[in-house]
Amino acid sequence: MNVVEVAIINVTSYMGMEAARLLSRHPGVKLVSVTGRSEAGKSLASVLPHLSGIGLTIDPAPQVADVVFSALPHKASAEVLLPLVEKGTKVIDLSADFRLKAVEEYQRWYDFSHPAPEMLQKAVYGLPELHRPQLASCSLVANPGCYPTGAILALVPAVKEGLVHPDIIVDSKSGVSGAGRTLSMTAHFAEANENVSAYALGGHRHLPEIVQELEATGSRKLSVTFLPHLVPMTRGILTSCYARLADGKLPDGEKGVAELRQVYRDFYKDEPFVRVADAPPQTKQTLGTNLCLVYPTIDLRTNRLMVISCLDNLVKGGSGQAVQNMNVMLGFPETAGLESLAVYP
Ligand SMILES: NC(=O)c1ccc[n+]([C@@H]2O[C@H](COP(=O)([O-])OP(=O)(O)OC[C@H]3O[C@@H](n4cnc5c(N)ncnc54)[C@H](OP(=O)(O)O)[C@@H]3O)[C@@H](O)[C@H]2O)c1
User: Fold this and answer.
1) Are residues 151 and 204 in the same domain?
2) Which residues are catalytic?
3) 261-285, pLDDT tens digit by residue?
4) 10, 110, 315, 334: which could form a disulfide with 71 (CB 3.0–4.6 Å)?
5) Is 36 in the pocket of ligand 1 (CB under 6 A)?
6) 73 CB within 6 A, ligand 1
7) Which of 13, 181, 186, when mutated, tests ligand 1's pocket best, judged by the most ligand atoms within 8 Å of its CB?
8) Domain shared by 129 and 156, yes or no
């Protein structure tokens, strides 16, 4: 395997440090530079002792590299990445800055005017299960959000095959690391521990991404309600999706359930990181791994599709997926650096 030089911008974020952890074990990667605004000049080992084996000093700006990962917040990420993209560097953006195709959505959901609308068409939405051929030849990857990864992977086989009515409910529960490392009232131990809360009832920023990708696959307008919840765990997202089954698409009763499962198994049969589970999956089964577990079934009393998915928001929901995208982009084996099993219990 060739070795490429990689830089990580904002290693002090949860996404940045998880990317460093994964890339440090990647056989085709030499990590050459990591940045962090408030910790520049310090050794990575002193700031993040769990990464002490890597041995770099935190830079104020990324040094030249073949591939750059950005774990900056939205808006800041585009500003730093656009000059790199112009220079021809391969870039993987973990922020939302290049995920949406319709430029007006940035004003609406992220409250900023996008600095390079033309790049939105060039960027590839980094969900390999949907966009592998485009990823293999692109230089700017828009790595998906954590909630959208779980929701889209749960729904896309059913939406693509027209198995459901367009009225869909996505109900997600996330661990606290999904909100990042910046301190906030909701993330305080005393607020989050032994507590569960719904938030963003007026519309969460990840909703347009979910709709964009599902509508593109199913070729029709959808009406999606997405409701996220915060639960007292560190990592993980469990997503439950509901939609009424389209008439006459599946046989009644258990035969319909079996056929539905087969549709999902066929859709994901060659995917290294999506597994159709035989029982409702649990977040711990994906802890520390790049796996997304998906369990489709039917509520036979109401004729409703129910799909449960789960993943680790920092791995398949973020940095692991970014490494998977890099592997596809560079022609590395897609599982390189991502082979580990879940940490359990
Ligand atoms: N958390 C997740 O599960 C998840 C999943 C998928 C994608 N993402 C996306 O990945 C990116 C990183 O997320 P995160 O949750 O890992 O972040 P985070 O832990 O909240 O990182 C926040 C850090 O970013 C730095 N920062 C803030 N504004 C900055 C700016 N304008 N310029 C430079 N540095 C700045 C600050 O570092 P200093 O203290 O050095 O100032 C701050 O400590 C975000 O775009 C997020 O939306 C997150």
Assistant:
1) yes
2) 146
3) 999 999 999 999 999 999 999 999 9
4) 10
5) yes
6) yes
7) 13
8) no
pLDDT tens digits along 16-40: 999 999 999 999 999 999 999 999 9
Is 71 in the same domain as 156? no
Q: Which CATH number do you get for residue 304?
A: 3.30.360.10
pLDDT value at residue 1: 81
- Flag whether pLDDT at 161 surpasses 90: yes
Quote the domain boundaries for residue 266. 147-313
User: How high is the mean pLDDT of the chain?
Assistant: 97
Residue 50 confidence (pLDDT) above 90: yes
CB of 37 sitting under 6 A from ligand 1 = yes
Check pLDDT > 90 for residue 218. Answer: no
Same-domain check for residues 281 and 325: no
pLDDT mean over 227-249: 97
pLDDT given at position 58: 98
Question: Residue 219: which pLDDT band, with cuts at 50, 70 and 90?
Answer: confident
- Residue located nearest, by CA, to atom 11 of ligand 1: 71
- From the CA of 95, give the closest atom in ligand 1: 45
Task: Judge if the beta carbon of residue 175 lies within 6 A of ligand 1.
Answer: no
Question: What is the structure's pLDDT at 56?
Answer: 96
CA of 74 to the centre of ligand 1 (A): 8
Residue 243: closest CA among 304, 202, 182, 285: 304
